[in-house]
Amino acid sequence: LYPSFNYSLPLNLSLSSSNSMNLPPDKVRLLRCYDNEKKWELICDQERFQVKNPPHTYIQKLRGFLDPAVTRKVSDSHKFRRRVQESTQVLRELEISLRTNHIGWVREFLNEENQGLDVLVEYLSFAQYVSEASTEERAVDSPWSRSIEDLHGDSNLSALVSRSNTLPSRKTLKNSRLVCKKDDVHVCVMCLRAIMNYQYGFNMVMSHPHAVNEIALSLNNRNPRTKALVLELLAAVCLVRGGHEIILSAFDNFKTVCSETLRFEKLMEHFKNEDDNIDFMVACMQFINIVVHSVEDMNFRVHLQYDFTKLNLDDYLEHTESDRLQVQIQAYLDNVFDVGTLLEDAETKTAALERVEELEENMTHMTERLLDTENEAMAKIVELEKQLMQTNKELDTIRDVYASANNQVHTLRRIVREKDQTIRRQSRLERHAQEGGGGTLVVQGGGTLHPARGEGDGGCQTGPTLLLLLLLLPHPPPPPPLCSMESSGPLPPPPPPCAPPLPGCGGSPTVIFNSGLAAVKIKKPIQTKFRMPVFNWVALKPSQINGTVFNDIDDERILQELNVEEFEEMFKTKAQGPAVDVTLSRHKAPQKGPNRVSLLEANRAKNLAITLRKAGQGPELICRAIQTFDMRTVRVDFVECLMRFLPTEGEVKMLRQYERDRKPVDTLSDEDRFMLQFSRIERLAQRMSIITFMGNFQDNIQMLTPQLHAIIAASVSIKSSQKLKKILEIILALGNYMNSSKRGAVYGFKLQSLDLLLETKTTDRKQTLLHYIANVVREKYPGVALFYNELHYVEKAAAVSLENVVCDVKECQRGMDLSWREYSMHGHNPLLKDFISKHETRLQKLQEDAHIAQDAFDDAVKHFGESSKTMPPSVFFPVFVRFIKAYRLAEEENEQRRRQEQALMEKLEQEELQQEQEAPKSPSNRPKQRQQESLITELRRRQGGKDSRHVYEGKDGAIEDIITGTPTVRKAHSYKVPSSPSAAV
C-alpha cells in the first residue's frame, strides 16, 4: 500500500512533513515517539491529501479577474458568464485550500511576495461594487475604483486604480448582474474566515486597515446566507480584545460609505424586512446581543443599547413571535440595562444611605456624650488626685511635727535621767559620810570624791566638813554615752528611730550610710538629648570619697550653670535621631506617681489592677460589700473575676510579716494595699463562693428548668406515642421479612437500626427502605403519617446533657447549704436571710424536677430496650431527631416524584392525543420532532452550563470554534476579555 521506507532519507524531510501537518505541540511530541515505519505511513498519507496548486496560481487568476483590460475584452455575454463561473470556481478552490492545507501553504499565500490577503480584499471590494451597481443601477461614470482606493494607499495599486477608471460601461454593468447572482462575495468571505481560523492569519486580518471594513460592507449583499455569514464572523471578532473597537469602526465606515443617518441603520432594515429568513435573523440578533453586551463599561453599553433603541429594536422585539429567536431575544433582554430601574434603585439606596447617615449621627452624639461623661469622670479623678496630694502634704507635716516632738521627748527623758543619777549619787555620798564618822572627802581628778586619810590613824574628816565640800562643789557634767560609770541600775533603751518620710514628698534625697563614714549622696542619672561618647576614666568608689577634695564638690550645681546643649551638640555621636525632649520628660515624670513597694508577683499584681479598675469601687467599699454580701455594690462578674485573686498562703505570710515589721502601709502599691485588706476578711473563700452562688442563682434556675422540662416532656411523649409504636411495628415487620430466611425472625431491634433505613436501597438505587415505609404509611396507615407531631421537645432534649444538669442542681444545693451555714453560725446577716427565704422553695422545686427527669428518661430508655448508662439523652434523643428528619424528607421526595410522574403522564397523554389529531394531516413529522428535541437539548445544554466566554487561546481553529459555539451571549458580567488580539472568546 505504501512505498518502502528509505532509511537514507534526510531527517529534514520528516521534520518538514511534521510541520506541514499543522499539529499542536502535544501531537507533535506524540508523533516523534512513533517508529520510522509509522512516521513513513503518516508522511505518505499527508502527501496524498495535499493540494498540488501553489498559492501564486490562485493569486494570478484573481488578479486576472481584477484586470480592467481583461474585463474590457470580454464583451460577449456568454464569455462573460463563463468567466464569472470561473472566478467563483477559483474562489471555492482557494477556500478549500485555505481550509485544508497545512499552515505553511497559508503562510506562503499571505507572505509579502504573494500578498494574498490584499488580493482577496481587493476582489471582495470589486464584487461588492458590482453587486451595488447592479442593484442601484448607478451611472456609468461612477468609478468602482473608489472602493479599491480606500483599501490601500501604496504604489502597488496605482496601476490597477488607473486602469480601473476605464472599466465600467453599460454593457459591463448589464453583464455584472451575473456576477451578483453568483456567490463570489459569499465565497470570498469564506476565504477570509478560513484565513482568520489561523492565528497568523487572524492577526494579519486584524491589523489590515480595510479588511474588516470590507467584510462589514458585505452586508449590502442581497444573499441572506452571505449576510448571516458576515454577522457571525463580525460577532466572533467582537469577542476579541480590541476587536469590539474594530467592529464599531467598521460600522462607522459603513455609515459613511452607505450614507446612513444612524449607525446600524441598514442592519436594522435588513433585520426587519427579511423576517422570512430565520437564519439571518438569528445571526443578526446574535450580533446585536454581542456587540451591545460584550463591553465592560456600563455607560458605553447603555450608549450602544440606545443606538438600537433609536432604531426601534425594542418595539420590534415585543411583536416578534418567532420561536427560534426567543433564546437570543431573552439573552438580550436579560442583559439590558434599564436606566429607570437603576435610578429607582439609586434613590432607594440614597434613602438607605440617609438613614445610615442619621444613625451615624446619632452614634456620633452618643459618642460625644460618652466623651463628656469620660471628661467629667476625668475631672473628678483629677480633683480626687489633688485632694490626695494635699492629704499627703498634711501627713508629711504631721510626721515632721511628730519627729520634732519625739526629739524633745527624748531630750527631756535624758535630762530627767541625768537628774536622777545626780540625786542618787548625792544620796550615796551622804550615806557614806554618815557611816564613815567625820571623814574628809578629797576631790581627785575627774571630779570624784574620795575620803581623806589622817596622818596617823588614817581617819576621815567630820560630817560638817563633808557637807561643806558638797555644797561648794559644782554640779558634775553628764557622762558620755560610752563612759563606764557606777550606776545603781541599767541604762534605759535607746529611743526608736524616726519614721522615714513618704516617697515622693519633699525632703532630702536618699543617702547611703557607711559605718564610720559620712553620708554619701546618691546622684540621679542625667537624661541627654543625644547619645554621648564614653569617657573612659577610672572612678573612685563611694567609700573612697570621704576626706578627699571630692567630698565637698557639687557637680550638679556646675551643670546648671553650664550650656549643656552646646556641649551635647559638640560631642554627640554620629547617626543620631531626633532630639529627646528632656523638658517634656521632666514635666511628665511627676505624673507617674511615687514609687511603691510591691509584694505581689508582677503579672498577678498587673491583672489584679485591671480587675480592680473594672470594678470602679474603692478597696474599702469592695471588702465591706464582700463581708456583708452586698450584691448591689459588687457585681457577680466582678466577684467571679476576683475569685482568681484569692490570697495564697505565701502572700498572706508576706503581708502579715510586713505588718509585724511595723512598716508603713502607705508605701505599698494599690494592689498590695487591697490584698492586705482583702486577706483580713474572715472565711474569704467561703464568702466569695456564697456571693457567686447568690448572683448566679437566678440565671441557673432559668437555664436549668427548661432543660429539665424538655427531658421530661420528650421522654413521656416518646414512651406514650402509639403512632411511633405503629411505625416501629412496620419497620420490624419489613425487617423480619427481609432477614428471616437468612438470620431468622427477631422480636425487636436497637434504636440505632433506624439510621440503617437510609442505607438499604432498592435495586435501581433510586429509593431507600425509608421511602418505601413512607409510601406504605401513606397508603395503608394514613393516620400514622404524622407520628412526629406526638413527639414533643425532642430536638431540645437532644441538646441537653442530663448528667451536667444534675451536677449543676447539686452545685446549687451545696451553695444553698453553705449559705445556711454562714447565716446560722456567723451572725444573722439580713441579706442572706432574705435570699434564703426567697429562693429555697425554688431550689426544692428544681431538685424535684431533676429527680422526675431522671426517672422519666430511665423509663423511656428501658421502654425501648436500652440502658440509660450506655445511652444518655445526648445519644437517645438524636436518634429520633434524625429519624423524623429523614422520614419527612422521604415523604417530600415521594411527593415530588409522584408529581413528576403525573406531569410526565399528562404530557405523554397530551402528545399522544395531539399526534392522533395531526396524523391525518402530516403522516411524517419525524424531522420536526427531531428539530424540537435538538432545540430542547441545546437549551438544556446552555442552561446547565456556566455563563462564561470561551477564551481564544491563540491556537489555530479557534475562530471557527467561536462562530460555531457561540450562538448567543449570556450574562455580560461573565465575559473575560483576553489579553491579546489573538485571543477571542
Automatic annotation (TrEMBL):
GO biological process terms held by the UniProt record: cell migration; cortical actin cytoskeleton organization; regulation of cell shape
Keywords, comma-separated and alphabetical: Coiled coil
Amino acid composition bias (Gly residues), ranges on this chain: 435-448
Domain spans labelled GBD/FH3: 2-430
Lineage: superkingdom: Eukaryota
Biased composition (Basic and acidic residues): 938-958
Coiled coil regions, renumbered to chain: 342-408
One Gene Ontology cellular component: cytosol
Keyword DNA-binding tagged: no
Residue span(s) of domain FH2: 522-913
PROSITE patterns: FH2, GBD_FH3
Region feature Disordered, mapped onto this chain: 428-458, 910-985
Name listed for the protein in its UniProt record: Formin-like 2b
Species of origin: Oncorhynchus kisutch (Coho salmon)
